[in-house]
Amino acid sequence: MRTFRFIAALALLALVAAGCEKPAMVPAIPLAKDYEAPLPPGKDALRKITDPKRMPDFTQALANTTALREAIDHSLHYLAKPSSRKHYPCCGLTHAEAVESLKAFRALLDSRATPQQMSAAVRSRFDVYESVGCDMRGTVLVTCYYTPIFNGSPVRAAAFGHPLYKPPADLVKLEDGSPSKRYPDRRTIETSGMFTGNEIVWLADPFEAYVAQVQGSVKIRMPDGRIETYGYTANNGHAYKSVRAELVKDGRIGKRAGLPEMLRYFKRHPEDVQKYTWRNPRYVFFAPIEDGRPRGCINEPVTTGRTVATDKAIFPPAALGFLTTKLPVKRHGQIVSAPYRGFVLDQDAGGAIRAPGRCDLYLGVGDEAGQLAGRAKNEGRLYYLFLKRSHQPQATVRKTARAARVDRPLAPAAASEL
């Protein structure tokens, strides 16, 4: 129900944001830039906006704050952990500033001010930073991800022959979440039986098992009807390679095709599943999630329409952001592309999200979220909001003045495009 409510709210917000603009049918725009371009050496991924005319308008986004407080609380819970400090300073911003900024924004939401009053307060009390994007001009490719629901079984059966594995007993994760040694690639793991005995659940379809790995979390409907949740816990240490890109390169699907088209292709051509999935050497290991809530790379629950995945080597974890783009919405039985503006929390990472020009928005659970996520691929802008130092508590300002710049460790992958 939460996913349905979000999609409905998203459609309403898109209508308001669009004004008189007529929604375009998906696909929306050609994509030709190098969105994977790495951040130049010595550069920060964020730059402070000093011209008020270049700041985004927050008013419409503050008229719909569904689940925003919940997402902020998850970020504050993460930032309360001592281990979260090792990722700061980031882009010259400190851990203490991230905490105070979230607290101040949450208090603003609780103030019962109008959206116009809150927007004015944000502009006067917060500094706004913009991602430099793929071209140093702020261009970001925005994609989406979700948590699928697939049929499965806790034991191998005639209809369920494709496992998800728990990590091998000797897997040790480094501080950045990567394994201390590299394990064999996907093809070797799937053909050798080397992890026999480590199966935690069995799926019916091999490509569904692959989708679960790429999305980073999955809900499994067992034969008795109960649903269990499993989430990313580690990987085999290999670099991620997009199966979708391989299918496009070989002319199997169109350049704008998404997950629904991929699922249909492999249903028609099951003989090609291994041919293509084996081109991605990365393999993901899972663990049960007892409370049923999928989690991001900061080990906090992800929130529908509020959690984004970015490159945690260059962006501030758990920080408050603002996203502008176009997103697919379902309207009158058709999926259309509509303008979107919304506050988000940077709480996840992804195998393919490894540059300042990439951002992945979490769209929820189930088939409808998957249909939308599979069609989301549009340019946008990603901003971060930090309380101005003149509004920070004096203790925070002193800590900021003393803070030294440090290397930023790479966060583990949790979700990415296929």
**In the CATH hierarchy, what is the architecture of the largest domain at level 2?**
Beta Barrel
Topology pattern, helix = H, strand = E: HEEHHHEEEEHEHEEHHHEEEEEHEH
Q: Biggest sheet, in brief?
A: 6 strands, mixed, barrel
**Which class of secondary structure composition applies to the elements?**
alpha+beta
| 3D shape | globular
Classify the helix fraction into a percent range. Answer: 25-40%
The CATH topology assignment of the largest domain is Barwin-like endoglucanases
**Rg (CA only):** 21 Å
Number of strands: 15
Low-confidence stretches: 1-30, 400-417
Q: Give the count of structural domains.
A: 2
Question: What's the CATH first level of the largest domain?
Answer: Mainly Beta
Cross-sheet strand order for the largest sheet: 4-14-11-13-12-15
Query: Beta fraction of the residues?
Result: 15-25%
Keywords:
6-stranded mixed beta barrel; 2 domains; disordered C terminus; Ribosomal Protein L25, Chain P; 418 residues; Barwin-like endoglucanases; alpha+beta
Could you describe the 3D structure shown?
There is one protein chain. The chain has 418 residues and is α+β, with helices and mostly antiparallel strands. It has two domains: 2-145 and 296-402, RlpA-like domain (Barwin-like endoglucanases); 147-289, Ribosomal Protein L25, Chain P, CATH 2.40.240. The protein is 26% helix and 24% strand. The strands form two sheets. It has a six-stranded mixed β-barrel with strand order 4-14-11-13-12-15, surrounded by four helices. Strands 6-7-5-8-9-10 form a six-stranded mixed β-sheet, with helices on one face. Strand 12 (320-331) and strand 13 (334-348) form a beta hairpin. The protein is globular, with a radius of gyration of 21 Å. The model is unreliable at 1-30 and 400-417 (pLDDT under 50).
